[in-house]
Structures are given as C-alpha cells and as structure tokens.
Design brief:
Blueprint: E1 8-13, H1 15-32, E2 38-44, H2 48-55, E3 62-70, E4 83-86, E5 96-104, H3 108-118, E6 124-132, E7 145-149, E8 155-156, E9 172-176
Helix pairs in contact: 1-2
This protein binds guanosine-5'-monophosphate (5GP).
Guanosine-5'-monophosphate binds next to strand 5, helix 3 and strand 8.
C-alpha cells in the first residue's frame, strides 16, 4: 500500500494475527480477574480499536473509562512531554483498573498515566499493551499483558497514527518515509 507524501506502508501484523493475540490476552485477563469487577481504561486516541476489540472478549464485569493523553506532535519521535487532553469522568478509588494502551515505546506516557492514576487511589492497576518496543524503553516499567514485542520501528494503523492519519487501517504496518 502506498501512502501520501511518498511514504511507504509495509504490512507488519495482520488483522487475523491481531485478533488471535487479543483472544489470548483476554483469556489471561479473564483468568486473573475471575470474581472481580474492573475499570477498563482506554487511553486515547491510539488504543481505541484495541480497546473495542479486547473488551468484547472479556467475561468479567467492567465499566469503561477514557483518558486522553498526548505525547507526540506531528513527528515519529516522542516529545517527552505528556499532557492530559481528556480527563476521567468518574472516581477510580478502591477499584481494580486495567489500562489498555496501543503501544509502549519510551514508556514515558504509560509511566505518566500510572502516576496520574495512582494519585486517585485505585485498589490495583495493571497495564495491557498491544505493542511493546522493549529496546526503546526509557522508564523502568513492565506492562503486565503484552500483545507483541516489536523492534524500534514506527508503526501505524489499528488506531495508531502518523500526523493523525492511518488510524482506521485494520492492520498494523510499518511506515517508511
Ligand atoms: P511512549 O510515551 O511510550 O514513548 O509512547 C506512547 C505513545 O506514543 C503511544 O500511545 C502512541 O500514541 C505513540 N507512539 C509510540 N510509538 C509509536 C509508533 O511506533 N507509532 C505510532 N503511530 N505511535 C507511536
């Protein structure tokens, strides 16, 4: 597939591979949280498709929360600055929270999100990320549930953007300028 501005998209993880892996992740979460209720927290915007697909596989009682964060401008490297663009709309105190992330790269966003949520005194917090770039990590964090460990490439699709484009792609590709 060819993108605008002469960028080239190479297919990387197919819809079928994503769907299968999400079923496996959900199975593990269902087993770990049997008998408990959770707050399923989706970070915006990149995690929307992952969140929509994984919650449909969860068999535990849950409610949705959304937290908008932004760390990247219009480039492919982290600005290092994370800001909240949309806040939670209900308390999470004394509740079990699972944060669903599209991708953990430097870990700056997840680390910020965890500090932000811990200040709201949940009973517990775990993190589930579809993609994890272990070699890019700059913070000592380890997601509890990981879909795929990937190398340090810039990926797009399945919720993830480049300058707000490509989020709607149903599979994950690597963008080469
Ligand atoms: P981190 O703070 O861990 O460096 O990055 C987290 C956020 O940056 C992700 O939620 C995502 O929005 C964005 N990001 C990190 N790596 C990539 C990537 O390879 N592709 C895209 N499209 N976004 C990324």
């Amino acid at each position: 597939m060819s993108a605008s501005n002469n960028a080239q998209i190479t297919p990387y993880i197919s819809r079928e591979q994503i769907a299968l892996r999400i079923q496996e992740m959900a199975k593990k979460i269902n087993a770990d949280y049997t008998g408990q209720e959770i707050v399923a927290l989706c970070t915006l915007k990149g995690s929307v498709l992952f969140f929509a697909d994984i919650v449909r596989e969860l068999k535990i009682p849950l409610r949705f929360e959304f937290l908008g964060t932004s760390s990247y401008g219009h480039g492919t490297t982290s600005s290092g600055e994370v800001k909240v663009t949309l806040d939670l709309n209900s308390p999470i105190s004394d509740q079990h929270v699972i944060v669903f992330e599209d991708i953990v790269d430097s870990g700056l966003t997840l680390s910020f999100v965890l500090d932000y949520l811990r200040a709201r005194k949940p009973a517990s917090i775990k993190t589930a990320t579809l993609l994890f770039k272990p070699t890019a990590l700059k913070k000592p964090i380890k997601p509890d549930y990981v879909g795929f460990e990937i190398p340090n490439d810039f990926v797009i699709g399945y919720g993830m953007d480049y300058a707000e484009k490509y989020r709607e792609m149903p599979y994950i590709g690597v963008l080469k300028p």
